[in-house]
C-alpha cells in the first residue's frame, strides 16, 4: 500500500505512522519530498485492518492499496520519474544520456581509444565488459579485474562514468569498487540471488530485459532490487527472441512507452543487441529518442573488424560520430517534450 502523509507533518508524527505499519508486520519504504512524505508498505498480513487503522490517524492524508504486483517500481507508488546520477550524468532527468563503447575490454589501447571517441561524440558513460557471458565456452570471456582497472583508467583520462556488467553475486563487491553503474545482462535478469545482492551494492543498476521475458517479468525483477534497498534502477530494452531471423533479436520498441506508463524507472534502449547489424543501429537509435527512451547504450569499437566480440553490431568511430550528430535535432524535440511532461507531473 501507499500512505500519503499530510503536508508539514512532524518527524514524530511520521515515526508514529511507521511504527503502526510495523506493528502489522509490514516493511516500510519512504520517499521524502520538500513538503510531504509518501510511505510505501510491502509484506503479508491483514491489509484491510492496516488500512483502516492508518486512515484513523490524523497525520495520514490517504492510504491506498497498490493493485500491481510490482509495488515500489510502479507509477502508483511514485508518479515522478526517478533520476539516477552516474558521474556527470543524470539519467531520467531533462538530459538524454548516451552510453557508448566496445562490447569487451580487450586491451589498454583499445579501451582508451574507445573512451576518447565516445567522449568526443557526446556520450556521458563508457560501456565495456570486463566479465563477458558468452554462448560458447570457447569464446573470449573478458579480462576480469584487469579489465575493470583499464576502465577505471579510461574514466580518469576522459571523465566518463563507467557502466560494466556483473555476472555473479560473488563479483558484485569487486565490480562495485570500479563501476559507476552495474549492468545486469539479459541472461541474468531472473538471477534472483544476484538481484538481491544488488540491493545493497550502493551503485545504480541497469537491468536488461531477458530474451523471452515479458514486461511484467522485467518489472518484477527490478522490484527485487528495489525491495532489497536499492532504488536506483534503470531498465533496458535490448530486443527479445522471436521467429524473425533477419535481425539478431526483435526490438520491442513499444516496450518503451509501455514502461513509461507503468513505472517511474528510467528506460534505456540498446539498438546494438536489438538488431545485431551496425547499419541498422542509427535508425533504431533515432526511433528510441522519438518514442521516449531516457537514453541509449550503443556498441562502438575503434576497429570493429578486429573486435573479439560483437564486431558485426559495433559502430566504427566515423559511424558513431555521424549518428551522434544526426541525433541532435531529435534530442532537441525530446528535451522540449520532457520539460513539458515534467511540468505536468
**Total E-strand runs:** 14
The percentage of residues in β strands lies in: 15-25%
Q: Going across the biggest sheet, name each strand in turn.
A: 7-8-9-10-11-12-13-14
- The coarse silhouette is elongated
Mean pLDDT across the residues is 93
- Largest β-sheet summary: 8 strands, parallel, barrel
Straight-line distance between termini: 21 Å
Radius of gyration: 21 Å
Fraction in helix? 25-40%
Describe this structure in words.
Helix content is 37%, strand content 18%. Helix 3 runs parallel beside helix 4, helix 3 runs parallel beside helix 11 and helix 6 packs across helix 7. The chain is elongated and about 70 Å long. Strands 7-8-9-10-11-12-13-14 form an 8-stranded parallel beta barrel, surrounded by 6 helices. Strands 2-3-1-4 form a 4-stranded antiparallel sheet. It contains 12 helices and 14 strands. Helix 8 links the parallel strand 12 and strand 13. The mean pLDDT is 93. With 345 residues, the chain is of the alpha/beta class. The two termini are 21 Å apart.
